[in-house]
Amino acid sequence: MNTPSPTLNLAACKVALVLNGASGKADGHANQDMIRDKLTPHVKEFVPYPVSNGADIPKAAERAVQDGADVVIALGGDGTQSAVAGALAGTGSVMGVLPGGTFNYFARELQVGETLEQALDTLITGQVRSMDVGDVNGRVFLNNASFGVYPKILERREAIYKRWGRSRIAAYWSALVTLWEMRDPMHLWVTLDGKRQEFHTPLAFVARSAYQLENMGLEGAEAIRAGKLVLFLAKGHGPRQLIVAGFRLVIGKSVRGQDFDLLVADEIEIDSRQPRRLLAFDGEKERATGPFKLRVQRDALRVIVPAGGEKATAA
């Protein structure tokens, strides 16, 4: 859901930049001067908030809001964007998005531009929209939240990144190795809009990005645009089944009912025999204690998008 917001006069705004130096292929700090030079003529005040540890991103964004920032720009991948969005949701401060990660699903969905230069132009000439965000026990997510094998893939991916560097090939390899080593599926109880069901599955994936689902050739994009949560539950229990299903996913040939179950709801609660689990939020992982209550925060985040598009209004 996207709702028009009040207009924004960038020239009257204090603008903060939260940049994650560890995100993506390049050092985010190297871009700081270029961003400052590009934005300073168009804003009232520009203040950078650099961090070198991803865990410090929410605190930096919260500090920017407390310091009176009207616009908080996030430079980094989906994990960085999600962390900043979590700090801004419900505050009234506007979020700007500069892609700096591996996949950049959130930036691509907003169509802010594939490059840093294009995204900076969007910040200067763009417009403001209010948008929905996902919520798990009060923790905001933008693209997806997942339980089971995917958080373990992220653990393996970090180790491969450290050795070989960040790349999509490294990301896919980490998935293959983790799936091959996977053993026992999760035993979950899923409650959707008051109806409780039992599942044995290696992966529960809750989607909030219509763009990501369409990019992956999966159903559910229209339900997300209607403000719903979409839950995918993998059906294969063994490594071979999951690898075959993963291959079909990569080539856009996944089959509902064969590779996964798909459930749509306004609210979802997930409980497990193992109450404390490793979760993944927009490509970043953390441990949390269930039951896990998922919902949509309506129009919680104000974000700058390109002018004149479907996602934009006059600013």
From TrEMBL:
Gene3D superfamilies: 2.60.200.40, Probable inorganic polyphosphate/atp-NAD kinase, domain 1. Residues 10-140 form the DAGKc domain. SMART domains: DAGKc (SM00046). Pfam families: DAGK_cat, YegS_C. Its EC number is 2.7.1.-. It is an enzyme of class 2 (transferase). SUPFAM superfamilies: NAD kinase/diacylglycerol kinase-like (SSF111331). The keyword ATP-binding applies. InterPro entries: ATP-NAD_kinase_N, Diacylglycerol_kinase_cat_dom, Lipid_Phosphate_FormReg, NAD/diacylglycerol_kinase_sf, YegS/DAGK_C. Keywords: ATP-binding, Kinase, Nucleotide-binding, Transferase. GO terms for molecular function: kinase activity. This is Diacylglycerol/lipid kinase family protein. It comes from Cypionkella sinensis.
